[in-house]
UniProtKB/TrEMBL annotation:
Taxonomic classification: Bacteria, Pseudomonadati, Pseudomonadota, Alphaproteobacteria, Rhodobacterales
Stretches of the chain forming a coiled coil according to its record: 304-362
Keyword Coiled coil: yes
Superkingdom field: Bacteria
Pfam families linked to this entry: ParB_N (PF02195)
Identification of the protein by name: Plasmid partitioning protein ParB
InterPro entries for the chain: Chromosome_partition/occlusion (IPR050336), ParB/Sulfiredoxin_sf (IPR036086), ParB_N (IPR003115)
Gene3D superfamilies (alphabetical): 1.10.10.2830, 3.90.1530.30
Chain ranges of the ParB-like N-terminal domain: 8-111
GO CC annotation terms, alphabetical: chromosome
Length: 660
C-alpha cells in the first residue's frame, strides 16, 4: 500500500532535526561552509522542494531535508538576508507518526539528492545564461561557488557536440571528454577524435591531451606568453576560450619560428657584445648533445688605469652594501634590492679583470635556449669541428676519433631523427617510471631533499622537480610507436583522482590528497615525476651516475616500452636497413634478397618483422629482433651485443656488403 504524505505549512522556528535522518550522525554535513551554496540558492530561488517532516514532541522533526533546514537557519541568523525569519512558513509533507519506514525514506531522499555530473552542470548553467539571462557571476552566487568554477563547467560547451554525446552515451569516459576541453577549437577536437577512434581503439584522456598539444600552444604557457604579441601581429590564429589562460595559439609552427627568431636575436646580441665568432639558437638546450662541444673561459688580465679606478669604486661600494645588508631590521624587498645590486657590481668587477683571448673569441660562440620560462645564454661554446682543428693532430678532419670518414652504408643519425629518438626514449622511460611507483617515489624524494639539503651540484639533472611537465617536441608525433603512451595512459587510469576537483579550493584538495593510501600517493608521484624526464639518449655513467643506475633498474630493456615501426624505418636510408637486417639481426640471406627491392618494400618487411617476428626465425635471430633498437637508446641493463645472433658477421666484401 502506498503511503501518502499530507501537505502542510510549518514555520521555520517550529522545525527541529529528526534523529532518524541518516545524516544526523555526520554533523560536519551541516557546517556553514558545506551548505553555503545551498544557502545562496534558497536565498534567491526559495525552497524548491518541500521538506519531509514528522510530528515529534509537539514539534515538526525534519526527516528528509536536514541540509535545507540548516541553510534556512543560517538565513535567519544572517541579518543581510531578506524574507527569512523564525515565523516564515514553508511547504512541507507530513509523514504519519505510525509510519515505520522513516529511516528508509530519509535514506532514499538523501541518495536522490546526488550532485549533478559535469555535463549536467554545464547544461544547467548554459540554460540559465541562454533562457534566464544569467551571467557567470550571478550563477556563481546562486550556487555558492566561484566564477572560475562556473566558467570551467561552461567550457564544456566548447567541446564538439559529437564528443559530448559520446560521453553522455558512455562511449568515452567523462575524464576523456574533459581532456578535449584542453583545446577550444571544435574542429581540432573533431579531427583528433576521429583520428584516435578510426581503428575502433579505446580512447584515453592522456592520448587525447598529447594529440591536442601538437595542435597549438596555450597562451598561459611560458612560450605562448613570450611570443604572443609577435604571433598576433603576424596574423597567427588564436582559438579563444571562456577562460583566457586556456586560449590556444593554433599555429604551432609559427610559434616555434618566432621563438627561434627571438632566441637567435638574443644570441646575436650577446655575440656582438662579447665579440664571439658565431651565434645560434635552440628551443631546448640538450646537454647530452652539447656534451661534444667544448667551452672556453675568460682569463685574468691586467686592468688599465681607468678600469682600476672603477674597480676601486666598486670595492668601496660593496663594503658599504655589505654593512647595510647586516641590518636585521631590513624588509625583504629592501634586502633583495641590495642583493641584486651586489650581484651586478661583482659581475662588473669581474668583467674588468677577465677577458677571452683573441684565439678563443675567433672559434667560440653563444647559444640561446628557452628554459624555466626565460631566455638562457650559453656562452663560450666551441663546436666539435673547431676542437679538432685546435688539436691539429688529425689534420682538418671533423671526426674526433681520427678514423676515416664512414662509408655510405654507415648509420649516422641526422639531427632531426636523433632528436625524435631522444623524445621517444624519454617517453619510454616515463612509462617505466610510472610502472615502478615505489622506486620512482624514492628517486623523487631523494632528489628533492638532496638538492635542498646537500651542498654542491644537483644529484641529477635528468628529472626536474619544479611542478611542471617537461616539454615534449617530436616532428612526427602521430607516427611514433604508441606502446609507452598506452602504458602511461593505463597508469593514469589507475590513479585515484578523487581529490583533484577544480571546483574545490586547494586546501580541500590537499586534505583529500593526504587521506589517500600510501600506495596511491606513490603512483601519483611516480606519474608526475615521469612527466618531467628530459629527452636524451643513454646516460653517461660519469656525468649522471644516479640516473644511469636508476634507468638500468626500472628500464633494463627499452623494448618493453617501445617498438621500432615503419615510421622509424622510413627515415633510414636503404643501405642502413640492409645493414641492420644483415649484420645486426643475422638475416643475411633476406638482406641479399631485398637488396633489389624498393625502399618502401624493405620498410614494410622490417615493420612486419618487428610487429610480429616470423615463425621461421632461428632463436638467435628472434632474440636479436626482440632486443634491437638504435644502440644509444638502450640502457646498459641488456647489453646490445649479447642479443646479437651467433651467426658469423659477413666480411666487408661479402654478398651482403656488396648489396648494401
Amino acid at each position: 500500500m502506498t503511503t501518502s504524505f499530507a501537505p502542510l505549512t510549518v514555520a521555520i522556528g517550529d522545525l527541529v532535526p529528526h534523529p532518524a535522518n541518516v545524516r544526523s550522525n555526520s554533523p560536519e554535513t551541516y557546517d556553514p561552509e558545506n551548505i553555503a551554496h545551498l544557502k545562496a540558492s534558497i536565498a534567491i530561488l526559495g525552497l524548491l522542494q518541500p521538506l519531509l517532516v514528522q510530528k515529534l514532541d509537539g514539534k515538526y522533526a525534519v526527516l528528509a531535508g536536514g541540509r535545507r533546514h540548516a541553510a534556512l537557519k543560517e538565513l535567519i541568523a544572517d541579518k543581510t538576508s531578506k524574507g527569512f525569519t523564525a515565523k516564515t512558513k514553508l511547504d512541507c509533507r507530513l509523514v504519519p507518526e505510525e509510519c515505520d519506514v522513516t529511516t528508509a525514506l530519509s535514506l532514499a531522499e538523501n541518495i536522490t539528492q546526488a550532485p549533478m555530473n559535469a555535463i549536467d552542470e554545464f547544461e544547467a548553467f548554459a540554460r540559465m545564461m541562454e533562457v534566464d539571462g544569467q551571467t557567470p557571476e550571478t550563477i556563481a552566487k546562486i550556487f555558492g561557488t566561484t566564477v572560475a568554477a562556473v566558467k570551467g563547467r561552461l567550457r564544456y560547451g566548447l567541446i564538439h557536440p559529437d564528443i559530448r554525446a559520446a560521453a553522455r552515451g558512455k562511449v568515452i569516459t567523462l575524464d576523456t571528454m574533459k581532456a578535449f576541453a584542453e583545446h577550444p577549437s571544435q574542429e581540432a577536437q573533431r579531427e583528433v577524435f576521429e583520428a584516435l577512434t578510426k581503428d575502433g581503439g579505446y580512447l584515453q584522456a592522456y592520448t587525447v591531451r598529447q594529440a591536442l598539444k601538437s595542435r597549438g600552444v596555450q597562451v598561459s604557457d611560458d612560450i605562448g606568453a613570450f611570443v604572443r604579441e609577435e604571433y598576433e601581429a603576424r596574423g597567427g590564429a588564436v582559438a579563444a576560450d571562456l577562460l583566457e589562460e586556456h586560449s590556444v595559439l593554433e599555429d604551432a609552427a609559427l610559434v616555434e619560428t618566432i621563438l627561434l627568431e627571438k632566441l637567435g636575436a638574443a644570441a646575436e646580441e650577446a655575440r656582438i657584445k662579447l665579440g664571439f665568432a658565431w651565434a645560434d639558437a635552440m628551443v631546448r638546450y640538450d646537454y647530452a648533445t652539447m656534451a661534444d662541444y667544448g667551452r672556453v673561459y675568460p682569463g685574468p688580465i691586467e686592468p688599465d688605469e681607468a678600469a682600476q679606478k672603477r674597480i676601486d669604486e666598486i670595492t668601496a661600494e660593496l663594503e658599504k652594501l655589505q654593512l647595510e645588508m647586516e641590518d636585521e631590521g631590513l624588509e625583504d624587498g629592501a634586502y633583495n634590492a641590495l642583493y641584486e645590486r651586489v650581484d651586478a657590481l661583482e659581475d662588473e668587477a669581474r668583467d674588468l679583470q677577465e677577458a677571452y683571448s683573441a684565439e678563443d673569441l675567433a672559434r667560440a660562440g653563444v647559444i640561446a635556449s628557452w628554459g624555466a620560462g626565460k631566455v638562457t645564454l650559453h656562452v663560450g661554446l666551441v663546436r666539435p669541428e673547431d676542437i679538432v682543428k685546435e688539436e691539429g693532430a688529425r689534420g682538418s678532419s671533423a671526426n674526433p676519433t681520427g678514423e676515416e670518414a664512414p662509408d655510405a652504408g654507415e648509420i649516422s643519425y641526422p639531427a632531426s631523427l636523433a632528436e625524435d629518438l631522444k623524445t621517444e626514449r624519454a617517453m619510454a622511460l616515463g612509462a617505466a617510471m610510472a610502472l615502478h611507483p615505489e622506486a620512482t617515489l624514492d628517486l623523487t624524494l631523494f632528489k628533492l631533499v638532496s638538492d635542498v639539503l646537500a651542498s654542491g651540484m644537483s644529484v641529477t639533472q635528468a628529472i626536474k622537480i619544479d611542478a611542471r611537465k617537461e616539454y615534449r617536441n617530436h616532428a612526427k608525433m602521430d607516427e611514433i610507436d604508441e606502446t609507452s603512451l598506452e602504458q602511461v595512459a593505463a597508469a593514469h587510469d589507475l590513479l585515484d583522482l578523487t581529490w583533484l576537483d577544480d571546483t574545490r579550493p586547494p586546501a580541500d584538495q590537499f586534505a583529500a590528497f593526504r587521506a589517500l593510501e600510501t600506495g596511491e600517493k606513490a603512483k601519483l608521484v611516480a606519474y608526475a615525476t615521469a612527466s618531467t624526464t628530459q629527452s636524451c639518449f643513454a646516460r653517461d655513467p660519469r656525468r649522471d651516475s644516479l640516473m644511469h643506475a636508476f634507468e638500468i633498474e626500472i628500464m633494463p630493456d627499452i623494448r618493453a616500452h617501445w617498438t621500432p615501426n615503419a615510421a622509424l624505418f622510413n627515415r633510414f636510408k636503404k643501405a642502413w636497413l640492409l645493414k641492420i637486417l644483415g649484420e645486426d639481426l643475422g638475416l643475411a640471406q633476406e638482406a641479399v634478397t631485398l637488396a633489389s627491392s624498393s625502399k618502401k618494400e624493405i620498410v614494410a618487411f622490417c615493420d612486419k618483422l618487428f610487429a610480429e617476428p616470423f615463425a621461421t626465425l632461428t632463436d638467435a635471430q628472434r632474440a636479436a629482433v626482440a632486443a634491437w633498437c638504435p644502440p644509444m637508446m638502450q640502457t646498459a641493463g641488456v647489453a646490445f651485443d649479447e642479443a646479437e645472433p651467433t651467426a658469423e658477421t659477413p666480411e666487408p666484401d661479402s654478398e651482403v656488403a656488396q648489396a648494401a
